[in-house]
Design brief:
This protein has two domains: about 90 residues, Winged helix-like DNA-binding domain superfamily/Winged helix DNA-binding domain (Arc Repressor Mutant, subunit A, Orthogonal Bundle); about 240 residues, Vaccinia Virus protein VP39 (Rossmann fold), CATH 3.40.50. The chain starts with 12 loop residues before the first helix and ends with a strand. It is α/β, with parallel strands linked by helices and about 375 residues long. The strands form two sheets. Strands 5-4-3-6-7-9-8 form a seven-stranded mixed sheet. Helix 6 packs antiparallel against helix 9 and helix 9 runs parallel beside helix 11. GO terms for molecular function: methyltransferase activity.
């Protein structure tokens, strides 16, 4: 994804019309990909090149007329290749789109991304009410599409890049590699961050905490599948319970702080759970340092995630919410860290790690 800033100021009516229509096409493309993902059409085409609509429908247990319309749309958008010389027409999923849509181990994988927007759009009436009166829609309400999307999108980065990235930071590699080290993973979701670290550091034990019970179920199943249950414990709990599971030599909060209704209380609890010399690493979106109107693609995407998913989740709490949102700027994190008893966050020298920036927080 490009992070260049484009001029979005004062477009003419004709220019905005063209851009807005392109946005409509992109939205339709994204949601058609959701159908291909959830109905198993992409996976089936990857396994059976040159398929007709009837063949695809029969193998996937779906309706042939809808399958044909989807296949033709995918070809019209340039995702599938259509052999119009054959009778009936056959369709093939090329290697490039297949990697992005289906390869869960590839850093290019985005196949689960449409699920996040589908999860939100399913709750548009509730979101409209929240936008008018306050409140929000919780992660639990967003359901399987949202939790599975986030878990699947982060997994290839955690699997292949997380341990090597941390190994290059001596202050993190050293405690992780110490025999008997205890490590906390707050907001662990589907557990892929915890599992990746457990596999890389077999002498350490890890506690993953997440308030979403279904995510914890996923994490336990994933840990069992990769044989790291002896090193990992997953708990359904709020981050404020961290001291009850400590002390920890190191703590992590991967892409979750901006979702929390009371991030300062969670940061304070993590600080209390740390053993002497312990530190916290926060991984969050690598957005611009300040708001300045027209923004790069990353900031624009994060505002979309914030408006439709993360901010409503953080605002859904029964108690007053910090209302952080996905666009967590370094100045905001610095303010939260100071109130929680940490020194000024230090940006770690970890680059080109998806959309993320890593911060080190050390107790004062």
């Amino acid at each position: 994804m490009s992070t260049s800033t484009q001029s979005l100021t004062a477009p003419t009516a004709e220019a905005f019309l063209e851009r807005f229509f392109s946005s409509a096409l992109a939205t339709a493309e994204l949601m058609s990909a959701y159908l291909g993902d959830r109905l198993g059409w992409y996976a089936d085409l990857a396994a059976h090149p040159a398929s007709t609509a009837d063949q695809l429908a029969r193998r996937t247990g779906t309706n042939a007329r809808y399958a044909r319309e989807w296949l033709e749309m995918q070809s019209a958008y340039g995702i599938l290749e259509a052999d119009t010389a054959s009778a009936p027409v056959t369709f093939t999923l090329p290697a490039g789109p297949a990697e992005v849509l289906l390869n869960h181990t590839s850093l290019a994988y985005l196949g689960a991304l449409p699920r996040m927007f589908a999860a939100s759009f399913r709750h548009l009436p509730e979101l409209l009410d929240a936008y008018r009166h306050g409140g929000g829609v919780s992660w639990a309400r967003l359901g399987a599409d949202a939790r599975e999307s986030q878990s699947a999108l982060n997994r290839p980065w955690f699997d292949t890049r997380l341990a090597p990235a941390l190994a290059r930071v001596a202050d993190l590699h050293r405690p992780l590699g110490r025999p008997g080290a205890r490590v906390l993973d707050v907001g662990c979701g589907g557990g892929w961050s915890t599992i990746a670290l457990a596999r890389a550091y077999p002498g350490a034990t890890f506690v993953g905490i997440d308030p979403d019970a279904e995510s914890v179920v996923m994490a336990k199943a994933n840990a069992a599948a990769l044989a790291v249950t002896d090193q990992t414990t997953f708990v359904t709990a709020d981050g404020t319970t961290a001291p009850a599971h400590g002390p920890f030599d190191l703590a992590f909060a991967f892409e979750c702080l901006h979702d929390m209704s009371d991030p300062v209380s969670v940061l304070s609890a993590i600080r209390e759970s740390l053993a002497p010399g312990g530190r916290l690493v926060v991984m969050d979106e690598a957005v611009s340092y300040e708001f300045d109107g027209p923004a790069n693609e990353l900031d624009r995407f994060m505002y979309a995630a914030s408006l439709f998913v993360c901010l409503p989740d953080g605002m859904s709490s029964d108690t007053p919410s910090a209302g952080t949102g996905t666009v967590l700027r370094p100045s905001t994190l610095t303010r939260y860290a100071d109130r929680a008893g940490f020194g000024e966050p230090r940006v770690l020298p970890i680059e080109d790690f998806s959309f993320f920036r890593f911060y080190e927080l050390i107790p004062r």
